[in-house]
Amino acid sequence: MPKSARNSTGNGVSKSDPYAGSAARKKGHSVNNVFKFNTDLGQHILKNPGVAQAIVDKADLKQSDIVLEVGPGTGNLTAKILDKAKRVIACEADPRMAAEVTKRFQGTPAGKRLEVILGDVLKHQQLPYFDVCISNTPYQISSPLTFKLIALSPAPRACVLMFQREFAMRLFARPGDKLYSRLSVNVQMWAKVTHVMKVGKNNFNPPPQVESNVVKIVPKVPRPQISYDEWDGLLRVCFVRKNRTLRSAFLGTTSVLDMLESNYRTFCAQNDIVLEDGPSDQTVEDADMDGAVEDDEELGGMDLDDEDDVPDFFKEEEDRKAKKAKGNPNRKKRGKVAELVRSKVQKVLVEDTDLAERRARMCDEGDFLKLLYSFNQEDSSDIALSAHMAEEGEHFPRHAGIMLIAVHDENGCPSDQSPSTLERTGHFAPMIS
Questions:
Q1: pTM of the full predicted structure?
Q2: 10 in a domain, yes or no?
Q3: Up-side HSE of residue 378: CA atoms within 13 Å toward CB?
Q4: 377 and 254 share a domain?
Q5: Residues 30-86: tens digit of each pLDDT
Q6: Considering only CA atoms, which of 101, 102, 92 is closest in space to residue 42?
Q7: What EC number(s) does this enzyme carry (predicted)?
Q8: What is the CATH number of the domain that holds 71?
Q9: With contact defined as beta carbons under 8 Å apart, do 145 and 415 qualify?
Q10: Dist. CA 88–CA 96, nearest whole Å
Q11: pLDDT digits (tens, 9 = 90+) for 255-288
Q12: Which of 425, 343, 332 has the alpha carbon at shortest distance from 379?
């Protein structure tokens, strides 16, 4: 029978050799499926070499630079970095990916300049020294990674990072914009942010469901002479409800006032300040009438994409407790120390800064600096500690008006990734002891 008349399968193997066909099918299957990418870990590999080269070019690397790459994947971006940098430190959470990128450069001259660190970059208390950070960032760690990088001391020269487009737009948002948030104020305070390029979803394998942007973050040198933890803590309180007035954020939130009172007691105890304690004539509900009730009707207009939004369940539970306590004749009375703290906060918001009726989403960097300065001048309880105590459940000691803060690693919160080695360069203004 002529060769042309032989029956053949779709892959070019004759039916007379069934074992060869099976081997060919297995070979093709193994080539296309080395391992399955875990999209839950943000594994979307950048496959476009042109985009990878553009990212490296925008980093302005020097031959003496040490580069930190977060999430190297299969090493497509790593190869471009190794062509220009002295050394690359690749931090990878997935052991399979770490083995893949190690295998790719093993036995090559570039392999001697590559160091692969296995583990979550957010859980490393102390990162090795590096000059530049380049990353195709897993989107679920975008916020904590950004805060970790801007809080490093010494700060890197530049960070070129790939983010989800909406997150990247938050970095550039200005007061009054829909995406303006605590992230916007914090990043713009400590660094200069510039847009590099847009990256379509088809440049990745597998393609994500969102578009991406590349941004360049250059930390300010010298660093602003304020405490990072105080600044971030102040913003935490202000942006709990960014559409509420600052009067409401501070005076209309019982948990905030309780933490301020606790911090103020700690401060006075450590500085031998005698406090007149005891019950006040004013009840908790009566005191709260000065605060934030006027803004409750506007909560429905909050942006749905605000990362600090509270579920409706908690708001309903709060209303239920308020109605239950309203008719209770034995409701708790606020103490004299609480009233003292409240009066200090009222003075700062109304007399010193005139920001009581301003909303956080409309305040710029200068307004928050003025607020931080006034609280320090007033010698009221430290605002930064309020946010940390809310999550840590502990007090932070203070001495002579300066905080001695032990920062703990809190994975999952955007701004909590500041390392304990963060150097304190001083306050915007000293506390009055």
A1: 0.69
A2: yes
A3: 25
A4: yes
A5: 334 455 666 656 678 899 999 999 999 999 999 999 999 999 989 999 999 999 999
A6: 92
A7: 2.1.1.183
A8: 3.40.50.150
A9: no
A10: 19
A11: 888 888 888 888 888 888 888 777 766 554 444 4
A12: 343
What span, in angstroms and rounded, lies between the C-alpha atoms of 338 and 359? 24
Domain ends where: 188, 219, 250? 219
Domain count, the chain: 3
Residues 83, 138, single domain; the answer is yes
Backbone angles phi, psi at 172, to 5 degrees: -100, -5
State yes or no: pLDDT of 306 exceeds 80. Answer: no
Q: Is 104 exposed, middle or buried (0-12, 13-18, 19+ CB in 10 A)?
A: middle
Where does 140-272 have alpha helices with state H? Answer: 142-151, 165-172, 182-190, 228-238, 246-251, 254-270
Closest CA to 260 of 359, 340, 141: 340
Containing domain of residue 285, as a range? 228-403
Residues 178 and 266 in one domain: no
Structural contact between residues 217 and 400, judged by C-beta atoms closer than 8 angstroms: no
Least confident of 127-136, 348-357, 396-405: 396-405
Domain-located, residue 412: no
Element (H, E) at 337: helix 336-347
Distance, CA of 173 to CA of 155 (rounded, Å) = 23
- Residue 418 domain-assigned (yes or no): no
| CA distance from start to end of the chain | 104
Domain contains 419: no
Does residue 355 share a domain with residue 333? yes
Q: Could you tell me if 203 and 269 lie in one domain?
A: no
Same domain for 104 and 240, yes or no, is no
DSSP 15-68: TT-HHHHHHHHHHHHHHH-SS---GGGT--EE--HHHHHHHHHHTT--TT-EEE
Single-letter residue type at 420: S
* Residue that is written with structure tokens 């960097």 in the block: 365
* 2, two tokens: 């002529």
Query: Is the domain of 267 the same as that of 301?
Result: yes
